[in-house]
Please model this.
Amino acid sequence: MKTHTVYKTFQTAQRREFVRITEDVQDAVDESGVREGMVLVSAMHITAGVWVNDDEPGILEDALEWLDKLAPATWQSPPNEVARELLPDDGDYRHHRGGEDNGDAHFKNLLVHHQVVLPITEGRLDLGPWQAVFYCEFDGRRRKRLVIKVMGE
Amino acid sequence: MKTHTVYKTFQTAQRREFVRITEDVQDAVDESGVREGMVLVSAMHITAGVWVNDDEPGILEDALEWLDKLAPATWQSPPNEVARELLPDDGDYRHHRGGEDNGDAHFKNLLVHHQVVLPITEGRLDLGPWQAVFYCEFDGRRRKRLVIKVMGE
Amino acid sequence: MKTHTVYKTFQTAQRREFVRITEDVQDAVDESGVREGMVLVSAMHITAGVWVNDDEPGILEDALEWLDKLAPATWQSPPNEVARELLPDDGDYRHHRGGEDNGDAHFKNLLVHHQVVLPITEGRLDLGPWQAVFYCEFDGRRRKRLVIKVMGE
Model:
């Protein structure tokens, strides 16, 4: 059995940003020499996620608009009445009492999830033709880390 | 260490459909000879998911109604005002500019997630008594694939 | 390759409760002797979840308020109009026709997800500094189980 661990660091220009990492994950698999197994791709932060979806700009923009309604930020006006009602009843997250302003990013993390496990078959990520892997930053503009753990033989 | 890979193809009669696959996953485990390990069950599409929940028809119908409010389709009228407000502000997903009409299915995929990892103990899926595994189709009526990857010893 | 399986039982005092289990998962890793690998942490129920986030009381209280809006319970008044509209159109979950009252817990399970896979590096859970692991009970006050499956070498 082999394992191989790679850490990636991101510092996004935008507060929220989707970064394609499919090739980084494949590189980690290549380095590992694993032909059959699994690879875990996991954000090491509580305000980021990993999503497998379509590398189509419209989807990514739609996703951000939609996530901003479901998990609204308090550092911007709620985009509409539904978002306003999904904010905490007191108008601000309890989490912000300590001086933070990223409560929304914790719930975007919950919705998107912070990790995925991908199958490796014959040395390749065994993904469907439109599946791309994204690191989803919801509170960026600072250094954040991701761990890629390959396991197999 | 052993690995075993099985692909399943679905062509659902309905656009949205939950298909129970617990037994298919157990069959893959049986074929693998793995007694202790994990099995990854992963939709190979960006408009489908895998959910572990109760095989009770009411839950599945409830789930579809609820997902249609949270991630509304534009090929049907929004079921209510909340769903209407959760649609993109311009009324249609940017993703549809290319001629697609399945934007909602991408976000149902996000909510449900496209994969699960299940424990294998003494050769059996180590599930609780009410846990069943479902392939969740959100844009069906065409061939879609799922990969089952067993790993262990 | 080694595997190690641990079951934990919870009986929470509250119907909904977040229980920190980071140390229990590390203990399972320690017992296993695995230095490099993965650990699956999976609720064995369809009304519970596992979440990796911040061990900060405000976040956990925020999370519960927010989940109660997105996946509203019928054993309490909907907290606001959005929650009311996210309830089933007939006002009650179909799942409750059999006498249950925990439909909301099934959808909180969907949002949170019932399992996570965590990386193990040099014998330690390879988590970021603020990542804590929580068992998320959404229908407690009775015995519920969780399985921890360690795999690696």
Summary: Chain B touches chain C through 40 residues (CB under 8 Å). Chain B is about 25% helix and 35% strand.
